Amino acid sequence: MLASTLFFQVFAAVLVAGIPTSSERLAQRVARRSAGTHQSQPMQVVAPDAAVSGASDVDYTANWSGAVVYTTTDAPWLSVTGQFTVPTPHEPTNGTGRHSVSAWVGIDGSGCDKILQTGVDFTVNGDTVTYTPWYEWYPASEQDWTGFPIKAGDVITATVVATSATSGTATLINESSGQRMSHTFSGQPALCQYSAEWVVEDFTSGGKYVPLANFGTVTFTNLGAETADSTVGPAGARVIDIRQNGTVYTSASVTSDSVTVKYVGP
Ligand SMILES: *[C@@H]1O[C@H](CO)[C@@H](O)[C@H](O)[C@H]1NC(C)=O
Ligand SMILES: *[C@@H]1O[C@H](CO)[C@@H](O)[C@H](O)[C@H]1NC(C)=O
Ligand SMILES: *[C@@H]1O[C@H](CO)[C@@H](O)[C@H](O)[C@H]1NC(C)=O
Ligand SMILES: *[C@@H]1O[C@H](CO)[C@H](O)[C@H](O)[C@@H]1NC(C)=O
Prior knowledge:
Elements: H1 5-17, H2 23-34, E1 59-61, E2 64-70, E3 79-85, E4 99-107, E5 115-125, E6 128-138, E7 143-144, E8 155-164, E9 167-174, E10 180-185, E11 195-201, E12 204-205, E13 208-209, E14 217-226, E15 231-232, E16 238-244, E17 247-248, E18 250-255, E19 258-263
The structure holds 2-acetamido-2-deoxy-beta-D-glucopyranose (4 copies).
């Protein structure tokens, strides 16, 4: 699978060192957050922790849970799609106030410090639940879609297409109404088209992870990642869970045609 030496080296470097966090980037995030937006981030692998018991066939990251599939330079990912039902987020049992989480599909962000992605943020704060649909070509900031009201139970299809390494589209479709939001990117920093993923993310604000909402369960179905020659599902994917300071917050699993992420935190 890791046929490309270049990609293997990048992948290994990420495993060992993580992706560096620049204080400038974090400062930008604070500004964005205060402006009501956020930025999804690359996957941050965390080192094995012998004190943590969990599934032996998953990797832990600080911020992503879900499934990641990898390809090679000769067969770059061209698109990834997935459908999920919007959950109702809850505050965790040991915390009150604003808690958030994001569900999205994307290309890159694991082994490549760019991401083409689209998804929905879920935020709970007391009795108030808000949903924010967005698209992003990391490292540029996230952009929110307006005029696409979301409520719990909506079935959303998220799709990104890389029409080249530097251009593509991000699309969200409301399967209940058929409403469709789409954004076309061009002239972006080049993707590697190396990883494709279905993710539930704890994003950061002000240099800290946002308090993670209890999102119940997010299941991606009707999914696929395409190269020019084939479409694959998550069978054989790298399965990842969020672990922060020794606490495991998610339990991700895959079948041949679905990715399920359950909240298992406090
Ligand atoms: C909730 O529990 C988690 C895991 O034990 C812990 O890391 C976190 O600090 C707790 N939050 C509060 C507000 O106590
Ligand atoms: C999806 O469509 C349903 C039915 O028309 C509507 O109630 C819901 O608000 C829509 N959601 C979005 C995201 O447009
Ligand atoms: C882990 O705990 C330290 C000390 O409380 C805190 O500064 C840090 O943000 C925590 N990391 C995560 C990922 O929650
Ligand atoms: C996920 O992983 C790391 C950050 O710690 C990357 O640099 C991204 O910033 C992302 N998470 C964070 C910490 O923001």
